[in-house]
């Protein structure tokens, strides 16, 4: 099946008419980000990976989960239904698509977090396989590929002439989508551009070895930790841009008569993330906080779930103002 | 230059004058530089200095970094612009001048972001601060590394930030408001701007105070505006325009515009330029009877 770029305009239009949101890579603030678009002309094709991940469509930066109203002798507490519009996520990179499976593992683990699942149920992921990448990309080192289909409902591959995509429908949702918008999809096949291959991580990476080393608590005292991680300044940019990071904070906003309970992104890199009410902070240095992030991705996560803790998108490497490169730590712990 | 730097670092560590040298080193692919903490004189060769050395390492001198403090007295590899931040930290009692050895680097400019590096430092990849730099020959140091740089900054500030400010000054308040609301809307409340700034050294930021929650932590229009205003105001007259906050911002919010506009206003109103004099306090944190007040209308 073929989706020609010329017909993308019609696809966006029809999707919008159906009432759904169409999110795609587009320029905003001088960088290519996943954003809601109204016309196909806004869509960028020239990008390695969007600066933000697509997770914010399923797990927004901020949302209201409850409302409290206080009247004279009455307190009214009401839950707020998650706002879950039908959403088309177009141009997601395969690593980001795979990350949705990771988020689902967390949000359906010991409690079904409907604000996530409802949004995921109502969204459809059209990933585009990578034909280019950069130094940050390392999906192949975590067991994925630049044309991994995990988490995608449809996968698109750019044709050699660059004018179209070859489309593969992978799930029932994907097949229904094609049926629903059948006039934009054409039968046929074409040659596609070569898929990008990320560089090997210098020194080599062995995920099993990393897991094994992190399973032994002796590593806590390893002097290599401060050496690798003390430069981190806890900005949280890596966690906020990471497609699998999922931590949030609950906070109340408003006044004494009317309050909204908010669920906002939070990050283990921020200094008061583990600050106890007593004043004690078990992760009192940046080294310990960064170690936690690494442990979360390569020890805690794989111990609990079969999905990936890290999908190798490389955002944390690109965005880090001190260039704390997770791949260097992976190489160190593969020894 | 690097040889001279390494020699000095080796000497400092061998003679025990400092316990750690905070500087720049290569990443494992040798494509980017990253902060390094050298404690062993044998590792002094890891130090590098080039146009990629954009980080302002003065952040590591602040009290948030207890583990770095615990290493002992630091020496810091610092460009003139980084030294401005150290000067403010000293004048505000955060760092004792005797407790830090400043290795001042003669500087011919750096890149705005390392990602822009193509092997050559051209004007268009240099940040605005470098085009107007008064401290290419570092001004407060214990030693200067490198040859004297011949550079006179232009009388009228130039570069993208100032062009934008001039363009901005012609806009209506409504247009300016819309511009900022639009940009701040992209803020994701990661606080990278705060963490990158050595003058945002509070151990408990006002955003962390949640009884009551003075600054809403939600990344909605109100919360984003509140945060960005507070950040700007707490840096008024203190900010040295080092640009680290903007560089760290993952949402590409043009924070240097705010910083430099504020610096211009402070210069005009108080005749003060931050980062030059360790004895003088920034104007917003002290009261002087002779302070101008004709801007209060
Ligand atoms: S840890 Fe880094 S590379 Fe891995 S998924 Fe998160 S942002 Fe991407
Ligand atoms: S982006 Fe870098 S400096 Fe910021 S929290 Fe992550 S590792 Fe630390
Ligand atoms: S502002 Fe001056 S000292 Fe700082 S990097 Fe630019 S040229 Fe060098
Ligand atoms: S506010 Fe920004 S530009 Fe000013 S000193 Fe802090 S990091 Fe540097
Ligand atoms: S770094 Fe940018 S996105 Fe993050 S809190 Fe600051 S302004 Fe907002």
What does this structure look like?
- The complex is a heterodimer of chains A (335) and B (297).
- The model of chain A has no long low-confidence stretch (mean pLDDT 93).
- In chain A, strands 3-2-6-7-8-9-1-10 form an eight-stranded mixed β-sheet. In chain A, strands 5-4-12-11 form a four-stranded antiparallel β-sheet, with no helix packed on it.
- In chain A, α5 packs across α8.
- Chain A has one domain (2-332).
- Chain A has ten helices and twelve strands.
- Chain A has helices spanning 8-17, 94-107, 114-121, 172-180, 207-215, 224-229, 237-241, 286-304, 315-319, 326-332; strands at 2-4, 21-28, 31-36, 62-71, 74-79, 87-92, 123-128, 154-158, 164-169, 185-186, 248-254, 258-265.
- With 335 residues, chain A is α+β, with helices and mostly antiparallel strands.
- Chain B has two domains: 2-145, no CATH class; 160-285, no CATH class.
- Chain B is built from ten helices and five strands, in the order αββαβαβαβαααααα.
- Chain B has a five-stranded mixed β-sheet.
- In chain B, β4, α4 and β5 (143-145) form a beta-alpha-beta unit.
- At the A-B interface, α7, β11 and β12 of A face β2, α2, α7 and α9 of B.
- Bound molecules: iron/sulfur cluster (5 copies).
- The site of one iron/sulfur cluster (SF4) has 14 residues of chain A, from α7.
Show the helix and strand layout:
The complex is a heterodimer of chains A (about 325) and B (about 300).
Chain A: E1 2-4, H1 8-17, E2 21-28, E3 31-36, E4 62-71, E5 74-79, E6 87-92, H2 94-107, H3 114-121, E7 123-128, E8 154-158, E9 164-169, H4 172-180, E10 185-186, H5 207-215, H6 224-229, H7 237-241, E11 248-254, E12 258-265, H8 286-304, H9 315-319, H10 326-332
Parallel strand pairs in A: 2-6, 6-7, 7-8
Antiparallel strand pairs in A: 1-9, 1-10, 2-3, 4-5, 4-12, 8-9, 11-12
Chain B: H1 2-14, E1 20-26, E2 33-38, H2 66-69, E3 74-79, H3 80-91, E4 101-105, H4 128-131, E5 143-145, H5 160-169, H6 173-184, H7 192-195, H8 221-235, H9 244-248, H10 255-270
Helix pairs in contact in B: 5-10
The structure holds iron/sulfur cluster (5 copies).
One iron/sulfur cluster binds near residues 234, 236 and 238 of chain A.
